[in-house]
Specification:
Layout (H helix, E strand, L loop, with lengths): L5 H21 L4 H24 L6 E6 L1 H9 L1 H10 L1 H26 L3 E6 L9 H7 L1 H13 L3 E6 L18 E5 L5 H8 L4 E6 L1 H6 L2 H15 L5 E5 L9 H14 L2
Parallel strand pairs: 1-2, 2-3, 3-4, 4-5, 5-6
Length: 267
């Protein structure tokens, strides 16, 4: 969706300014249709959150945002963006500097509407599965830190949604504000190592694998959840959850086993 030439305009105008000038490249509806769609979706989101609250299930995420690295990787494609990182690194960094404040501002504006306590920060492509630590140190972590600190200053929790393997990146997370983040893992990162590194610093969330809830048996799901609750949740600071999303073909019996395990094994 973005070209290498777009970096110059993004650096000049920021993401909001760039999007205002080029929105018709990405969205073939009128301004009126766009605003109607956005209002409808937001209203439904708030309605859904209230429905869960009425059932005694709190919702956390009042806004969703990508890190600059994740954003550009998705819009440029992984291969093209990786080439950008190695061929024009200074320009990529300047573009990231230009968009991060807009991402923070938009997230805070969404929170002001939804009134929910956390920002869902989508992360996948900046971790050790894809890149060496030197890439992470320059192009990912400084922006994660800036965003988390801004959200923390506003009184918000950041849910760090880590898809893929971030095991080597875990020690860096101790440089984020204590007690202001949730480290959400998808069963690719070593969750037991995460507990060892981050114990007492941030909450761990995860990581019942999609394959287990789809292809496993209820007793296998129960046993894995028991292990997580007893080992990761032993001293608190743990939210039992799916590894990333619950897959569409998760069986009802397996999902029920996951939910019931909390009632059976919680400390």
């Amino acid at each position: 969706m973005l070209t290498r030439q777009d970096y110059d305009e993004i650096i000049k105008f920021g993401w909001t300014g760039f999007a205002e000038r080029n929105w018709q490249r990405f969205w073939h509806r009128s301004i009126e249709q766009t605003l109607y769609w956005a209002k409808r979706q937001t209203t439904q989101y708030i309605k859904d959150a209230q429905a869960w609250k009425d059932k005694g299930v709190p919702s956390l995420a009042g806004a969703e945002v990508f890190s600059p690295l994740m954003f550009f990787s998705m819009k440029r494609t992984l291969v093209n963006f990786t080439m950008d990182l190695f061929e024009i690194p200074d320009k990529v960094a300047a573009a990231m500097d230009a968009v991060v404040d807009d991402f923070i501002k938009d997230s805070l504006e969404a929170i002001s509407i939804t009134k929910l306590p956390a920002v869902f920060l989508v992360l996948e492509r900046g971790g050790c599965f894809y890149y060496p630590l030197r890439i992470f140190e320059r192009f990912e972590f400084p922006y994660i830190k800036k965003m988390v600190e801004a959200f923390s200053k506003a009184g918000l929790i950041t849910c760090l949604h880590f898809d893929q393997n971030w095991t080597l990146n875990l020690p860096y997370l101790k440089d984020l504000p204590k007690g202001k983040c949730i480290c959400e893992l998808d069963s690719c990162t070593d969750i037991f190592k995460a507990k060892e590194v981050l114990k007492g610093h941030m909450c761990i969330m995860g990581d019942v694998p999609a394959a287990l809830t789809t292809l496993g048996k209820p007793e296998e799901v129960d046993e894995y959840c028991r292990k997580l609750i007893k080992e990761i949740g032993r001293d608190g600071g743990f939210i039992l959850s799916s590894g990333c999303a619950v897959p569409a073909d998760c069986t009802f019996e397996n999902f029920k086993a996951m939910v019931q395990s909390v009632k059976k094994y919680r400390p």
